[in-house]
Amino acid sequence: MSYISRRKWIGSGLAVTAGIGGASLAAPIADRYGLIPPDGGGLFGPGETLTYAAHRLVTRNSLAREFSTARISNSPYPNGRPPKDEIFKLHQASSFADWKLDVGGMVEHPTSFSLSELKSFPSRSQITQLACEEGWSYVAEWTGVPLAHVLNLVGLSPKAKYVVYASLPIRNATWDSIDIDEALHPQTLISYGMNGNLLPIPFGGPLRLRVPRQLGYKSVKYITSLTITDSLKGFGKGLGSADAEAGYSWYAGI
Ligand SMILES: Nc1nc2c(c(=O)[nH]1)N[C@H]1C(S)=C(S)[C@@H](COP(=O)(O)O)O[C@H]1N2
Ligand SMILES: [Mo]
Prior knowledge:
2 domains; binds ligand MTE; 5-stranded antiparallel β-sheet; binds molybdenum atom; 5-stranded mixed β-sheet; Sulfite Oxidase, Chain A, domain 2; alpha+beta; single chain
């Protein structure tokens, strides 16, 4: 038994509990570990709680699959059109020289990073799959600075639980959030490169959060802000993301 960690036993216990008595019985266990997701209430709440808590207890440090260069998709599909908004076009005209990523909230040093600063930090490249909840996917190489690096630079408060991220306010702006486990995971990138080039605008250039362990909608394009918080209650309807407000799962682990 020694080779199976206590966390894994608790995770298996959660799954067994759900099998016998329905997902709602998992909630008290999840609560004890601080693993109730922001959309853990309502009709689908027990299922959301079970999925999130079981993933976090059992596969917290697992890696998203990485592929060989041979598997990179020839024609990746950009979901949505490039922004036509005037404010975006102005940024584009100046090659995004004034694009900023504001990092604030529960950090010691709130900081506004320029693109060139972000590009000067240690980078990581990884070939992963982006999978949309609608059923299509593609494989590409993403390059960027690990979100963990930037969070360490600004000094995360020990109370921090979530990172909320949002697009520039344009027509197809959106916002989402991830927990600190996902934020500090080495494959979670603030991404500015794709397949060896600058990240193309249709794919979220100049800056996109790339969260390869979760469905495509968590990889928000055109990001300009990160807000670190201990609660998602003050953001929108309190469900943790625009997609959760539209009826999708906040936790979209794959
Ligand atoms: N700003 C912004 N980011 C977004 C979206 C969006 O509509 N606006 N769509 C999301 C969804 S639903 C998916 S599946 C992926 C698609 O990524 P792709 O355009 O690289 O295919 O982007 C995500 N990021
Ligand atoms: Mo999607």
